Amino acid sequence: MNVNDTDTGPATEAFVAHRNLLFTVAYEMLGSAADAEDVLQETWLRWVTVELGHVRDQRAYLVRIVTRQALNRLRSVQRRREAYVGPWLPEPLLTTPDVAEDVELAESVSMALMLILETLSPTERAVFVLREAFDVGYDEIAVALDKSPAAVRQIAHRARLHVDARRPREVVSPGETRAALASFQRAIETGDLQGLLDVLAPDVILVSDGGGLKQAALRPIIGSDKVVRFMVGGSSKAQGAISSEQTVVNGNPALVLRVGGEIDGIMAIRVEDAHITGVYYVRNPEKLSRVESETALTRR
Questions:
Q1: Which of 33, 50, 92, 124 is the most buried (most CB within 10 A)?
Q2: Which tens digit of pLDDT belongs to each residue from 132-165?
Q3: CA-angle at 221, arms to 113 and 32, nearest 5°
Q4: CA dist., res. 133 & res. 157, Å (int)
Q5: Radius of gyration of the chain, Cα coordinates, nearest whole angstrom
Q6: pTM for this one?
Q7: 3-class DSSP state for residue 201?
Q8: What is the pLDDT of residues 57-97, one digit of tens each?
Q9: 3-state secondary structure of 55
Q10: What is the spatial distance between Cα 279 and Cα 115, in angstroms, rounded to a whole number?
Q11: How far apart are CA 40 and CA 57, in angstroms?
Q12: Pairing of strands 200-209, 221-222
């Protein structure tokens, strides 16, 4: 049975009520909207077999199911990612502007943090996402992962130390990010090389993801001079006019880049001290289909 069916029973009502939460949990664990949707379908198929009269807390029960399904999926996709061509970036997720105004929520789904989560073990990632992003209690996480609360506390502490050592030093306001992005966009569109150098931090890192389907750097590019050369070189090879528009991706301001009117990629940034310290460029067409369909609707 599909969650889009018109059944209005208690199981459907409960699932629909918590669907956004379940999707976000799955997405933060997997970094892929397509995989998150598959996990939601698997969660639904298990949910409709549950005797609801025996469920004390439907939200907690659903989170438990989606966590277990996402863990299973994560362990399988990790093997796939080991054979991935070039750097792997999360699938861009269009989010509403109000998410960007919620600084903590925006940071929890940002490209920068999602990449850090990739360095955790599947269990550490599950604990970190549930505890830090959704404030799920240790006892509840313990039931979901079939571990003791004491073990979950230890895992949470270890994961938090790991993430804190790698995350940006300060939380940047949406306004500061938008200002840096506007300067970046203006420099790209006008070919202002000095403008690019001015907005990029000297040690900026650019990560591009073509998945072997689109041209991209096979390893991260470090340093403002090298990043500018890479971007200028890519622009000179474009088969059509380059244009860009601002949007909100993973809770943060980002650019949709088009070549000849067609989406070429999504460029997200990380900002520290009013300078761009990270550029994340997703060109893999398989990761852009969701964004492409959603932006097509808004452009009509």
A1: 92
A2: 989 999 999 999 999 999 999 999 999 999 999 9
A3: 35
A4: 14
A5: 20
A6: 0.88
A7: strand
A8: 999 999 999 999 999 999 999 888 888 999 999 999 988 76
A9: coil
A10: 12
A11: 18
A12: antiparallel
